[in-house]
Amino acid sequence: MLNAETYITSQKGIGGEIRTINEDFYVEEIPETPPSGEGPNTWIWIEKNGRTTLDVVLDIARELKINRKQMGFAGMKDKRAITRQWICISNKTPEELQGLEDKLHHVKIINIVPNQKKLRMGQLIGNKFRLMVRDVGDTEPAAQEATKILNELEKRGVANYYGFQRFGKDRPNTHLVGKALIKGGVKDAVDRYIGHPYDTEPRHIQEARRLYDQGELEESLESMPSGMRYEKMMLRTLIKEKNKRGELVENSYIRALRSLPKPLSRMFVHAYQSYLFNRAVSERSKLGIDQYVEGDILIDNEEHLIHEFSREEINQEIKNFQAHPSSPLYGSKVPLAGGKLGEMEQKILDEENLKLDDFEVPPMPKLGSHGIRRAMRFRIWDVAAEATEEGVLLSFSIPKGCYATSVLREVMKKDVY
């Protein structure tokens, strides 16, 4: 996990490898309310393999010749996995979706159900996971070790780190794009997204990014593979701007960022907030994840601040997962903790040479953030670890917005992606 150092459990862990194949990582959405069977909106229950949620949504919009804004989903799901989730298509009947699956790449449509309401981001309870950990040696003792760790996490909670999906694995720079935005550098943000090749990327992608860095926009666009669809979106905008104006100005780069789907453009600042949050959680976890520490800002399961409490009663509520110590998703209006904890949270800002007001992002205020206090741990339930011929099969459920890799990191005692 990027910027995360602290473990909650003391066991050695089972090591091993995950995602050897996509089938090793199965995710199924737990909806708040399943579709009713009546209404003007159509929900489709899909299974995707090796695709991002956003890519599938864009492909469906293209095939149906509709605006992407007519579609909704509750959450982004992993790319390197087999995942199931609901996607909503507004003002389309189930009959109009016949034959859609045949036009989609690595996507199965399992069910099509009408519903009265649309589906919006965040409208889910959580996700069920079934994950295979391979190369663990003798699987029986490994499964026993994993069971001990999962049981402790079920009792105490899991450190609520953001996983590498938030930042990128081979190219962990999403937070750096967000940092550039917060520092006021719209051009720098675009440059970091399109250019700045990483050694971990394939050579032809490195070359395409290098051409951009050299100012060869059209050559960069031509050399980019289809998988770089978002870089190409921005490049087309920049080329159009340059042809129109004769040069690129700040507004050209703002237009380039606005050419992206809103969920993606909003992800940049969120990723930088997540990077800083991981550091805050790592420091706070050293003091105990399931107990009150003087100065803590506590929140309930609806993320409301808890203002009045007695120390004895609040520790019992923390044990029961009714209250949680929190860490800051830094933003322009987020409160910091009191006492020594507040000094720790302020130190993280100081080390990044930041002020809370920086998160307003004046050049593009819609991408800014007020910030919130977020629980520094999350609940895990329905845990199991089973020894198989292939490795240890882990099963568990976690709330929305939380990362299975935080659980895997504890079980395996290594960084996982």
TrEMBL record:
It comes from the Archaea. It catalyses: uridine(13) in tRNA = pseudouridine(13) in tRNA. One of its GO terms (molecular function) is RNA binding. Keywords: Isomerase, tRNA processing. This is Probable tRNA pseudouridine synthase D. Could be responsible for synthesis of pseudouridine from uracil-13 in transfer RNAs. Residues 157-378 form the TRUD domain. It holds the Pfam family TruD. Its EC number is 5.4.99.27. The active site is at D78. InterPro entries: PsdUridine_synth_cat_dom_sf (IPR020103), PsdUridine_synth_TruD (IPR001656), PsdUridine_synth_TruD_CS (IPR020119), PsdUridine_synth_TruD_insert (IPR011760), TruD_catalytic (IPR042214).
